[in-house]
Amino acid sequence: MTRQGLLVPQEILGTISTPATVMGLPPRSATSTANYKKLMTHLELHGIGSQNCASFESMKASSPTHLRSVALLPTSHSESEDSDWNGRLPSVLNKFEEITEAAKGKKIVMFLDYDGTLSPIVDDPDSAFMSEAMRAAVKSVAKYFPTAIVSGRCRDKVYNFVQLSELYYAGSHGLDIKGPTKWPKHIKAKAKSVLCQPASSFLPMINEVYNLLLEKTKVIPGSKVENNRFCVSVHYRCVEEKRWNRLAEEVRSVLSSYPDLKLTQGRKVLEIRPIIEWDKGKALEFLLNELGFADCNDILPVYIGDDRTDEDAFKVLRDRGQGFGILVSKFPKETCATYSLREPSEVKDFLRRLVEWKRISMKS
Ligand SMILES: O=P(O)(O)OC[C@H]1O[C@H](O[C@H]2O[C@H](CO)[C@@H](O)[C@H](O)[C@H]2O)[C@H](O)[C@@H](O)[C@@H]1O
């Protein structure tokens, strides 16, 4: 059966009943558990989870419209009906008191993804600017809580967008981490200047692959290859759908000579990364360690992100049983996050509220 391009076999779809779970996918009634498992396997195989197939279907599924079909909502659902999504994975704005309750006596540590979280998704990756209002909100947050930007982008590039020197920056999906150049008063780790680059030996290979991909994809109109230093992004947001297969084939053919690199997927982007066991989740753990919080029970890490690569960090928090993930999405998705926000403007509202709450609680 095809729903907006995602092939989910009828025998799997047929027996799964509707409404909602905390994970944004259908509930597991006793009768549908087996089929639910089949569905999860199917989604994984098609790259909806953290897999890296780069098939036409998984490329299609990286668009929110197609993700709606993954959650088995009727295709006729309108934008307003999607507000139901927040019922399944509650909006953190509606559950704000749960956060402040959990934060009592604890130190919040803030982790923020960039694209789709602090800046709206746009066609041209070089024009993904964040607003001045968002910058001010992030600056205020960093005044009270240790704050890190964790991005798939190259660290310098994301720094140029954010332009705040009091933050930690983890670029290339966490493969390039650097501490603040202006230390906020509340961070005690200032003696050390942090630099973590676990994939530095891959640099020559990444550059080689970047050049090959540039050459191979130049015949595909709308494609764009971005050198993110320790990883490479191949964008297809502006490529006609009929050419996506060809693009994926070119990428796979280049990668076939590089067994030490792997392919993952983000929002209309294929990502080429070193095969080492390192991701945004590992970066989060590294930073907590660096901040001296490795074994602390009195911290509340909060990670906000919109993409599949952010799931690695959501999962770390869930497995630690500490803090929570917030998924930024207008559409239902499979996720390890606890709460949701619909778009960057809501991220800004949440950050502002958190700062306001902190200011008030410091006075009382
Ligand atoms: O981890 P992130 O900070 O979310 O970075 C992930 C990728 O983000 C960028 O691509 C995405 O945003 C672009 C601008 O809005 C959009 O055109 C593209 O379709 C999205 O995939 C960035 O360009 C990539 O290098 C990052 O890996």
Question: Could you explain the architecture of this structure?
Answer:
Pathway: Glycan biosynthesis; trehalose biosynthesis. GO terms for molecular function: trehalose-phosphatase activity. It is an enzyme of class 3 (hydrolase). Belongs to the trehalose phosphatase family. With 364 residues, the protein is α/β, with parallel strands linked by helices. It folds into three domains: 2-77, no CATH class; 96-198 and 278-363, HAD superfamily/HAD-like (Rossmann fold), CATH 3.40.50; 200-274, Alpha-Beta Plaits, CATH 3.30.70.1020. It is built from 13 helices and 14 strands. The chain has helices at 10-13, 33-45, 56-61, 64-70, 84-88, 96-103, 132-144, 155-162, 203-217, 244-255, 280-290, 311-320, 344-363, and strands at 2-3, 6-7, 107-112, 147-150, 168-171, 176-178, 195-196, 224-227, 232-235, 261-266, 269-274, 299-305, 324-328, 339-341. The strands form three sheets. Strands 7-6-5-4-3-12-13-14 form an eight-stranded mixed β-sheet, with helices on both faces. Strands 8-9-11-10 form a four-stranded antiparallel β-sheet, covered by helices on one side. Helix 7 (132-144) packs parallel to helix 13 (344-363), helix 9 packs antiparallel against helix 10 (244-255) and helix 11 (280-290) packs across helix 12. The longest helix has 20 residues, at 344-363. The protein binds ligand L263DTV3. The ligand O=P(O)(O)OC[C@H]1O[C@H](O[C@H]2O[C@H](CO)[C@@H](O)[C@H](O)[C@H]2O)[C@H](O)[C@@H](O)[C@@H]1O binds at residues 113-116, 121-123, 125, 128, 151-153, 226, 228, 233, 235, 237, 266-269, 271, 307, 309. Ligand L263DTV3 is lined by residues 113-116, 121-123, 125, 128, 151-153, 226, 228, 233, 235, 237, 266-269, 271, 307, 309.
